[in-house]
Amino acid sequence: MLEKLGRVRRGRVVFDIRKAGVVDVLMGAQFVCRSWRSVSLNPSLWRLIHIGGVYRGISWKVDMERMAMEAINRAQGHVQCFSAGALSSDTLLSYLADRTSVLRCLRIIPTYKVSCKGLAEVVGRFPLLEELEITFPSLLTRDVFKLVGEACPHLKCFRYNQQGSRSKYGQDDEDAFGIANYMPELRQLQIVGNRLTDKGLLAILDKCLHLESLDLRRCFHINLNASVRAKCARIENLRCPNDATNDCGFIDEFDDDFCEDDIYIPDEMDLLAMGYDDFCHEGYYDYSEDDYEDYTDYSYLVKLASNFTL
Length: 310
Fold this sequence. Notes:
Blueprint: H1 2-20, H2 22-27, H3 34-40, E1 48-50, H4 64-75, E2 81-85, H5 90-99, E3 105-108, H6 116-123, E4 131-135, H7 143-151, E5 157-161, H8 174-182, E6 188-190, H9 198-207, E7 213-215, H10 226-232, E8 237-239, H11 268-273, H12 289-295, H13 299-308
Parallel strand pairs: 1-2, 2-3, 3-4, 4-5, 5-6, 6-7, 7-8
Helix pairs in contact: 1-3, 4-5, 5-6, 6-7, 7-8, 8-9
């Protein structure tokens, strides 16, 4: 009976710590008690790492990249899914590749610290990688499809999402041709907000013969005429351009009426402020310093921050 009760209590602790998130664990939860500390050091807790959100009041004081590296270290080579958001950099991704070979899912928001060559070199070191998600890819060149496709030929799921534009001058099929030519083994493709036309879509349908799921929401330059719809009939899960985007946090505030001149390229801090948490489905944490003071004694933050401060 006592053994069973112990397992239940430990299971509850694991649940609570996972719910807290990476930053909250490293910045305080691990100091709550011995059992929480023990669980926080268990490699199985760190198989799924999401550290892409913004933590107002502490993110400017803390080296978030170093914190991400600490999370990777605690996994002891067993990181299976890694979502770095706008903290992504060639340095961090290379650090991840040096310490795990079992990664199956990688999600990033490219900044000036991420290069196409660096990204391709990293994904090529993950033989089990099945899912790659790139949000706001404007800082990457078109070589990304060729480099990633050649480095990871067995990629099954690719997400390449952006805001989207209704402007009649924004048509562009280069992304679609890159996907069609270099990622033929895809089973799932999400290209929310892409500027492809029916021509680009047909190229994807003709060359990606294993597609089971295709997400074309906010791809406003697609007409989906009869011939295109006929080719789409084999797709089990098809999302059309005007379908709802309630589950796409990165475009929740998007204005349907904006014009091409209204488009701006978010800088790194803007991207951090748009932190999304598709990965753990818990929503990102947006705590102020006052929130932390209400949560528990602030002294533990001072203790741990000394290990991560810039």
